[in-house]
Amino acid sequence: MNKSDKTKNQLIQAVIELLRECYDISELTSRKITERAKINLSTINYHFGSKDELVNIAVNKLIEEVSHSYFKGNNAEENPRNKLKSFLISICDMVVDYRKYTKDTIPYILLQGKFNEAIQILPLVKACFEEGKSDEECKIISYQLISFLQLVFYRSDEFKLFSGVNIMNKEERDRFINMQTDLLIR
Predict the structure, then answer these.
(1) Which of 4, 17, 80, 169 satisfies CB 3.0 to 4.6 Å to 128 for a cystine?
(2) Percent of the chain beyond pLDDT 90?
(3) What whole-number distance in Å separates Cα of residue 76 and Cα of residue 90?
(4) Nearest CA to 150 among 55, 56, 74, 75?
């Protein structure tokens, strides 16, 4: 790992630690981040362009960690549809658990971020169809599942007014995920 990558990782780790400690994303200042990382204040803009970019990358990394831990400990015997639903539920639970800052980062993820979760669920979507859908169709379904969930979380109040589903309520959220998955994966 070169010095530049090491510095980037230090900054990302500092943000992750601070995110776990703070209750308001506005408390996360560049000064606090660089003090935690023991790095010069100007390095954030040098390596990431802005503090917002760094925070968004750190939040995405947290989501990736949840994804990786899910797949690492997942039961290989479970059927693909149930695995997919369980994965979506675990990601959504994490988004709600960290909602103090995930809502602020969803626009970035939707508009600029990588759709890592769509890539991660692609094998599960393909397994659900057992060759009944093309690769392209499975990719579109994966993308639909993830991007729609992100939009629903970002506009949760409007979604609740429109649908009556409170995505912040665990029972309603799980029911919604089951419904959405059943609509796209038959």
Answers:
(1) 80
(2) 36
(3) 17
(4) 56
Q: What is the CATH number of the domain that holds 5?
A: 1.10.10
Long-range contacts for 24-27 (Cβ within 8 Å, ≥24 apart)? 24/100, 25/55, 25/100, 25/101, 25/104
* H runs (alpha helix) in 38-134: 43-48, 51-72, 80-97, 99-111, 116-129
Are residue 75 and residue 163 in the same domain, yes or no?
Answer: yes
Tokens of residue 18, six digits: 């601070």
**Pair 71, 113 in one domain:** yes
- 13 lies in the same domain as 73: no
User: What is the Cα–Cα distance from 71 to 95, expressed in whole angstroms?
Assistant: 17
Angle between helices 30-37 and 3-21 (to 10 degrees): 120
* Domain count of the fold of the chain: 2
- Tens digits of residue pLDDT in 2-32: 888 899 999 999 998 888 887 667 778 999 9
Classify 131 in phi/psi space as left (phi over 0), alpha (psi -120 to 50) or beta.
Answer: left
Domain shared by 40 and 73, yes or no: no
Cα dihedral across residues 104, 116, 57, 97: positive or negative: positive
H or E, element range at 113: none
**Mean pLDDT confidence for 37-61:** 86
